[in-house]
Structure prediction request, 625 residues.
Amino acid sequence: MALIFSVIIAAFASSSLRAEEPGPGSAEPTVGSPEQIENDAPGSPAPGAEKEPNQKPVESKPDNGPAGPEAAPGDEKELPADENAESEDPEPVSIPEALEGPGTFVHYLQGEQFRNLMEAVGWSTLLIVTLLLSIWFITYLFQSIYSKLEGLASRLATGIRFRGAEIMQAQTMQSVLRALLRLIHLVLNILLILLVADWVISLFPGAEESPSAKVVRSVVRALVATMVFLTLFRGLRRGFDLLNRSIPILQSRFIPNLEFQNTVLLSRDRLLGALQALTNGLKIVSLLLVSYFYLAGIFGLFEATENWASLLLGYVRKPLHGAVVAFVAYLPNLFFILVVIVATRYLVKFAGFLFREIEKGTIEINGFYSDWAAPTHKILAVILIAFASIIAFPYLPGANSDAFKGISIFLGFMLSLGSSAIIANIMAGVVITYMRPFRVGDRVKIGDTEGDIIEKTLLVTRIRTVKNVEITIPNGTVLSSHIVNYSTAIARKETDGLILHSTVTIGYDVPYKQVQDLLIKAASEVEHIKPSPAPFVLQTSLDDYYISYQINCYTDHPDRMARIYSALHQNILDRFNEAGVEIMSPHYYALRDGNQITLPEKSIPADYMTPGFRLNREEKTKEDS
Prediction:
């Protein structure tokens, strides 16, 4: 086999060498060659002259000269000596002299070029024999590896495990390793064949440029590429099939349900189906890409189909080249955007650290309250991000395109239509933040709503009433309403506490000193009422039939106002009932005759007696009726 391959290469080399020698029409034949002997034969045409078919030789007739009496028949004219010499046949050349002359086959066999050719044939034979021995040795080596692999797989009880789950069985692992070893075996053989083929062809001068050698080399490379393609195609298909079989094994342990706030967005089965569909899609794309580049490579090996290869590769190379060029050209803008993002991020972080320290009280700034720290940080972060967005916007890809401009105009139009109330509430929220009318947890009354502040944002304020009703009030409404805060004075410790008050009306017949004592005693017994300052009573009005008494008491618990008022009213009733004082507002709609005087008891004379109630009856006469 090696000898046959060497002879084929030698034939290609000799044909290429003969093609380089001058042709018969380019120079005269060598003296003594068979061609020269044939040309010098009598009756042969001149070199280069075409011989007409069925052409008969022209017979020479004696020239008798002009007709006349002097010309007697039988008289012969003597030819010149030179003409007789030309008519004589040349001396024939012997065959050994013709075969041994310059340019003959024997001369070629005795030349240096033939010796070089035989030396190249010998080296190529040696290389091919070495190649066959190497292939046999590699095959023997891999056969032993295969047998050891089978013995190792038989001893393995389990495959590859990860966190207690078997992601690859022992048989599957054996198949994968065997396929990998076969691929390595094939690649080694292919590399050896290509290397030896190039070495053998390079041994023969002129063989590399021979068209036949180029065709043979292209065919060999095409066969090798086909083997690699089939192996890779089969390996990819088996690999993706193995991956599809492994996904259900990992489902119960490594594929959880996709949940959001206790709501299952995607179950395990749906995720499994999505992963299998993705794997199948990648499999199809990979096989198509491998087939595409295989065809392009095969077409590029032959001169007749090189244009097809360039066309196929151009469909992929041009878009990729354009994308790479565009990406490289965009790198300066991308670097600038990254610098802006990093700088903004660290500025926001530094501002957050600074305002957190202000909120903790570590850093104190005169006139800047600690409760301003969090909202100021948010406002500053929004301003920094907006400023960074404005700076980075012109450097975004497609920022100057018509589509980007159209989207910007549309968003601006939508914001201008629907953001007037939103912006008003945001501005009101900013104003309320720096007005500090209340804080989270304060008991307030905004308009007709009374309750505790539970949330304060830039847009709305949320209040929870004593009935656990949550009310959301826009900041614009809060800013335009009266805000009553029951907790601010206590929190700031600027006063003795919140004063709770209640009014009762008692008639003039009850001494005011007794009423005051009863009210103060009732207030002092209420829980969460401060003993100091002590409760006090104000007489707010002297009406026609009664006096209005207002009890005032201090407390530090405005969040318990409802319970404190209830307990206060209960104690007032108990104390007044014990003293025998009616809590009433008397109104008189009758004559004073016969009624008890309404002066205090100390002001009534000792001999005073309540007059009886007298009614005057008028009788009607018959005439009146």
Notes: The CA atoms of residues 291 and 450 lie 76 Å apart. DSSP finds 17 helices and twelve strands in the chain. Confidence is low (pLDDT under 50) at residues 1-87. The two ends are 163 Å apart (CA to CA).
